[in-house]
Write a structure and sequence with these properties.
The protein has about 450 residues and is of the alpha/beta class. The protein has a single domain, classed as Alpha-Beta Barrel (TIM Barrel), CATH 3.20.20.80. The protein contains 15 helices and 14 strands. An eight-stranded parallel beta barrel has the order 1-2-3-4-5-7-9-11, surrounded by four helices. A two-stranded parallel ribbon has the order 6-8. Helix 3 runs parallel beside helix 5 and helix 9 packs across helix 12. It starts with 7 loop residues before the first strand and ends with a helix. About 5% of the residues have low confidence. The structure holds 1-deoxynojirimycin (NOJ). 1-deoxynojirimycin (NOJ) binds next to loops.
């Protein structure tokens, strides 16, 4: 299918997952640097400093690969601690210069940066002051966002405040992500505050005079009850509420649902809220960014077929890329959404090493290609139905630091050798390049 003129075909990464190079260039440590040092927190003891892709040093290599892929957009994030090692206060000029160089190089290659301000790597210095559980985090984030808009607002066309705010809940409430607490009350406060911070970021954007557009990225892992039994329907409903509606109800709808407020109240985990918090998230945004990977089958009796929505699950055996369109249509209908949409992440993960085929020397990741075909035909059908999708960002350019899974879970179009840091094209990379070409009518 021929895509609309200007449609963005991109790849996505994030700072903590690809920059590597330890604390080089004066980066202040993030909660993920600290969390990864805890025994057992990350598979094989991998850390963002040692086991990412060293893009801080090898950005040009990544850029060449992107040019060869033919993408016209790159979704990346700023490491808060690289520009503000303490989270607030003194700027780190080397970090500031680094991102400006990245943006300029991308733009001169015809690749539009889509820049996320918060992709999970909170400066540890701020965690030491209470992190996202502390309401001051809203002001810390707003000040940081304001600085970024003033530094780069002249050249960055697309901004995202926060990526997948559920990560704060997983970090403070469930303990599987940094900073690794298992306190549901804190988890709820943290996820409430990160949403408020996102709104404060939008406010800063409007008053900074930056050009461009700003949106928020929320991942949707729609629950599908395996049977019609009332307990399965109830479970699916409850998990939808906890895992994505908490965020979308507030951002795209009219506020938290009575169900979730009531549930938290009964549990004694209800967060502190102020009217001001909701004023901030009610500020209009320019687009909604949806991350879509899969749906999640749930049932009380049968063993769960998939782990609860997160970012890494070895047991998510069945993929439903084609449900992307159904899920987006559900969101549009649910909230009467009438702003443009980007698919800010979509991709296929593989547990364990993928090895090259001896005959061709290439990783034959046909399963990934099949998945991508399904997802992109879903995007095509949405466009045919007149839905205003402006872009698609494939997760991810290259195998990288996959959070708790370390280097053991692979999402890349390119394989990364974590000893030599060499990036090698998999079959899916060639496939994506060809798909983009034909979508542009070349
Ligand atoms: C969502 C997250 O934004 C990203 O950081 C992660 O690597 C991918 N999903 C894959 O799990």
């Amino acid at each position: 299918m021929r895509y609309p003129e200007g449609f963005k075909f991109g790849v996505a990464t994030s700072s903590a997952q690809v920059e590597g190079c330890g604390l080089d260039g004066g980066r202040g440590p993030s909660i993920w640097d600290a969390f990864a040092l805890r025994p057992g927190a990350v598979k094989d003891g991998a850390t963002p400093g040692k086991n990412a892709c060293d893009s801080y040093r090898l950005f040009d290599v990544d850029l060449w690969n992107m040019e060869d892929l033919g993408v016209n957009a790159y979704r990346m994030s700023i490491s808060w601690g690289r520009v503000l090692p303490q989270g607030t206060g003194q700027l780190n000029q080397a970090g500031v210069d680094y991102y400006r160089r990245c943006f300029e190089k991308l733009l001169s290659a015809g690749i539009a940066p889509n820049v996320t301000l918060y992709h999970w790597d909170l400066p540890q210095a701020l965690e030491d002051r209470g992190g996202w559980v502390n309401r001051d985090s809203v002001r810390w984030f707003q000040d940081y966002a304001d600085l970024m808009f003033r530094l780069y607002g002249d050249i960055v066309p697309t901004w995202v405040t926060v990526n997948e705010p559920i990560a704060t809940y997983v970090g403070y409430g469930l303990g599987a992500f940094a900073p690794g607490y298992t306190n549901k009350r804190w988890g709820n406060q943290a996820r409430h505050n990160v949403m408020t911070a996102s709104g404060a970021g939008v406010e800063a954007f409007r008053s900074s005079g930056a050009k461009g557009e700003i949106g928020v990225v929320i991942d949707i892992w729609k629950r599908v009850p395996l049977t019609d039994a009332p307990e399965d329907l109830a479970l699916a409903m409850d998990e939808d509420e906890e895992n994505w509606k908490f965020y979308t109800d507030r951002l795209l709808g009219t506020g938290y649902s009575p169900y979730i407020l009531d549930k938290f109240e009964k549990e004694g985990t209800l967060m502190d809220m102020q009217d001001e918090d909701f004023r901030l998230t009610d500020l209009p945004i320019d687009f909604y960014g949806m991350n879509y990977y899969n749906t999640v089958p749930v049932s009380v009796k049968k063993q769960r077929e998939a782990a609860s929505g997160g970012n890494f699950a070895e047991d998510r055996r069945v993929s439903h890329p084609e449900k992307l369109s159904e899920v987006l249509k559900m969101i549009i209908k649910m909230y009467g959404l009438n702003i443009p949409v980007y698919i800010t992440e979509n991709g296929f993960g593989h547990a364990g090493e993928e090895t090259a085929d001896l005959a061709t020397g290439i990783i034959q990741d046909d399963d990934r290609i099949e998945y991508l075909k399904g997802a992109l035909s879903s995007v095509e059908s949405l466009l045919r139905d007149g839905i205003d999708i402006r872009g698609y960002y494939l997760w991810t350019l290259m195998d990288n630091f996959e959070w708790g899974a370390g280097n053991t879970y692979k999402y890349g179009l390119l394989h990364t050798d974590f000893d030599t840091l060499r990036r090698t094209w998999k079959k899916s990379a060639y496939w994506y390049r060809d798909y983009i070409n034909s979508a542009r009518g070349k």
